Amino acid sequence: MELDPAQTALVVVDMQHGFCHPDGSLYAPDSEAATEPCAELVDRARQAGAKVVFTRDVHPPDQFEDTHYYDEFDRWGEHVVEDSWEAELVEDLDPKDEDLVVVKHTYDAFYQTELEGWLDAHGVKDLAICGTLANVCVLHTASSAGLRDFRPILVEDAVGYIEQDHREYALEHADWLFGEVTDRDEITFA
Amino acid sequence: MELDPAQTALVVVDMQHGFCHPDGSLYAPDSEAATEPCAELVDRARQAGAKVVFTRDVHPPDQFEDTHYYDEFDRWGEHVVEDSWEAELVEDLDPKDEDLVVVKHTYDAFYQTELEGWLDAHGVKDLAICGTLANVCVLHTASSAGLRDFRPILVEDAVGYIEQDHREYALEHADWLFGEVTDRDEITFA
Amino acid sequence: MELDPAQTALVVVDMQHGFCHPDGSLYAPDSEAATEPCAELVDRARQAGAKVVFTRDVHPPDQFEDTHYYDEFDRWGEHVVEDSWEAELVEDLDPKDEDLVVVKHTYDAFYQTELEGWLDAHGVKDLAICGTLANVCVLHTASSAGLRDFRPILVEDAVGYIEQDHREYALEHADWLFGEVTDRDEITFA
Amino acid sequence: MELDPAQTALVVVDMQHGFCHPDGSLYAPDSEAATEPCAELVDRARQAGAKVVFTRDVHPPDQFEDTHYYDEFDRWGEHVVEDSWEAELVEDLDPKDEDLVVVKHTYDAFYQTELEGWLDAHGVKDLAICGTLANVCVLHTASSAGLRDFRPILVEDAVGYIEQDHREYALEHADWLFGEVTDRDEITFA
């Protein structure tokens, strides 16, 4: 699968301590295992001149106090709180000045963020998506990308997950309804 | 589960000929089977004074000509084309003047529609969701509702599906991440 | 100014009893005076095969009860309440089945409505805008259209207003920042 | 006018070299003159514990190549190009880590940006708005804030403009339709 760097962004979803580091409150070993594959994709995207986007899931301590129903702390416990170590990206993924770092407050990196506007203003149409969790923030972001008429390509050997069957469903669902699935070997930025 | 009619809407997703009638191009028997359960919920919601919303999936013939990637005709074949018999609601579900009928062009009834604005302007906060397909438009709409801070409650014995395991995943996914699942017997509008 | 009917919609803003009829609570004679010019444009757009969109400003009686600050009843008094005679379109402007009627709850016909999605799904890119009030709902809608990359063309002899200088500013502002201004004689749908 | 720091943000619009420095391509002396008043408000907001938001207008060199109609370079000439000196904030306004810096690509700081999501997640409801240009980005941002149910308060002696009557209209328009106008002396963050 050849991706044109002039209209492609690599989107690295939520590779933060809270999810990927053994001390993180929502740590999953298979999220940590996605770090090196994501880093390798970042290197290749940069060398080819494609855009690189990192998303960070961040919850201000009081975010859910005013909400009617949506309360991630209630479902998951407190996690990736604003300004905490948990909310930082893992060390091996180091954004450069020209990358976009999207701070998101829900599962969906498009919901009330600058992502769509930035992609449009930079002429990006195709998205290679990696990161974690496959069936939560990766899936919700990919789904939202599809409806907004981006081409979302999930990189199956660069996504993290809690259980293997979560990953299977996310990939099948995305492939069936709005996107594509491939692996790192298949992707060429050129 | 008691729902306050003053802040609740029943949302009936895509119960149209194209999905629910044997002559529909995307007919599934279990979508048709959801008709009577949906109609029964509509009756009870109306009697209690809750709002009723019907969504209709509608594709103008040329909708996907200008798109970069999102093309439902490519994935599903032509279906529920604007002004066709396929795009009409099934006979047993007959909107009244005071109901909202949302015409949607993607899987998500919130995406670029009047749904959120209408719910907000009418003080609706809780959504009982039924209709079809469980893991496509029902799931995408429920997910979008959750992120927008509505309380999405999927009515498991009033949703249609192609395969049983599609339904299972949709219900589990919604229950785990952003909503709740119940059945008709459990719901009281009062 | 030649407008291609295949990618043009005429947008008629808020020509309702509440604004255009002497018994309306926010009646302005120059809003009423816009009725015939709007009707004439509607005829010509229809004959040429361009799309026609009517917006209706509608406020549910309780709309502003839950809001923090935005309260149009506080600023304008109660007006165009849902299901009232005030909220109906004036008799001379009679939507046909193929037209879009947008119910809006704020000054901006794009905010939380189906307008953008409908225009996109129908391949519309250029908007001839008429209706009332020039410097309120016409201006806010035109401005929102511009930012969304539609071409908003204000038809200066088919807009209503309370005071003449309101109209002047609205036209100048739109022309300077995001759109164009013309009059009926200049427009050809072909 | 007392503003509760716990639910207030000061929003400083587009105080960048391109608009406020004599070498900027869209320089206006009265934009430059707003620098000190904005800086003074920033100091007071910080001391009181209110949030501080800076917006930056930024145009990638190719932003308008794919657009149908919206082309700011065509209207204004090339300005505040991404990564240029023009696009930087003026020296006297120096964001701190806890501030939000919003990169916007249109006149409206809410359009396709993270601003609404960030304000909501942080419990902000009231906005004191200053910066430049009064009748362009300040006005569009304030208008968008109002429709989204924030309380937009324009600080009249801390806004920049090209011509005095531009400022007058912007303030009148905002005050009449969706917000309030005050001056620095009147504002207390407490």
Query: Which stretches of chain A are poorly predicted, pLDDT < 50 over at least 5 residues?
Result: none
* Element order of chain A: H for helix, E for strand: EEHHHEHEHEHEHEE
Amino-to-carboxy terminus distance of chain A: 10 Å
Total helical elements of chain A: 7
If you average the pLDDT of chain A, what whole number results? Answer: 97
What percent of residues of chain A adopt helix (DSSP H or I)? 25-40%
Domains of chain A, number: 1
Derived structural class of chain A = alpha/beta
- What composes the largest sheet of chain A? 6 strands, parallel
Q: Give the tally of β-strands of chain A.
A: 8
What spatial form of chain A do the alpha-carbon principal axes imply? Answer: globular
**Strand arrangement in the largest pleated sheet of chain A:** 4-3-2-5-6-7
